[in-house]
Amino acid sequence: MSPLNAFWISVVIVVSAKTVAWLMQLRTRNAGLVDAIWAWTLGGLAVFYATVGSAPESTRTVLGLMGGLWGLRLGTHLWRRNYGKPEDFRYAEFREKWGSRANFNMFWFFQFQNIFTLLLSGSAFIAIAYRPDAPSSLAIVAAGLIWLLSVIGEAIADSQMEAFRNNPANKGRVCREGLWRWSRHPNYFFECLHWVAYLPLALSAPWGWTSLVAPLVMAFLLTKLSGMPILEEEMAKRKPGYADYIRTTSALIPWPPKD
């Protein structure tokens, strides 16, 4: 299958996945479930490109495992965090603001997110899945090490935050435990790092430079658009100690806190 045909099929996949997510939120009134479906879909696209690509089988296997396992882990975590819980404040605010047009607007908001899904998957996965030769052993090792660090680090950060939230004694408090003492968003840091893992596999390939787009897009999303700005504004309202947390703690890259 040609890269262009594979891309158009990926468009159908992501539109279908977000339509399913929209139908689910009609029933559950919980649009936050789209976050899990986003991760599963993006991981599934790595497996899809690895299946239909023309690169050596070993290269495509590495791609499918890296993207697929990342998406499975993150999507499952987000599903468990959101299913049966109150709707995430971001979507709840949209629903209240949109009023009677909430379901209509939510559908197109979900589909708008596909622009970034396609940018991430296309830039990170296509060059690897269709490269004519295999990357060097050193590149594969580097990719594997970055991937392991990013996925394990994000899983630890997620686990630490869930444990903190599940302790009733921490209600209204700011989490400063574990990785959260060194970064206000360690999960976002490791998420950005995850997209760097594909660079060693792609950069020596034709059009491999496109893989640089993925970590830049993810960093933009998390630090400028839908991640940190919205979340920190809300946390500053809810938690009195958050202003001091901002003052003393690195925003993204783990770093020793200030006194």
TrEMBL record:
<keyword id="KW-1133">Transmembrane helix</keyword>
<keyword id="KW-0472">Membrane</keyword>
<dbReference type="InterPro" id="IPR010721">
    <property type="entry name" value="UstE-like"/>
</dbReference>
<dbReference type="GO" id="GO:0016020">
    <property type="term" value="C:membrane"/>
</dbReference>
<feature type="transmembrane region" description="Helical">
    <location>
        <begin position="107"/>
        <end position="130"/>
    </location>
</feature>
<protein>
    <submittedName>
        <fullName>Uncharacterized protein</fullName>
    </submittedName>
</protein>
<feature type="transmembrane region" description="Helical">
    <location>
        <begin position="6"/>
        <end position="24"/>
    </location>
</feature>
<keyword id="KW-0812">Transmembrane</keyword>
<dbReference type="Pfam" id="PF06966">
    <property type="entry name" value="DUF1295"/>
</dbReference>
<feature type="transmembrane region" description="Helical">
    <location>
        <begin position="136"/>
        <end position="157"/>
    </location>
</feature>
<feature type="transmembrane region" description="Helical">
    <location>
        <begin position="36"/>
        <end position="55"/>
    </location>
</feature>
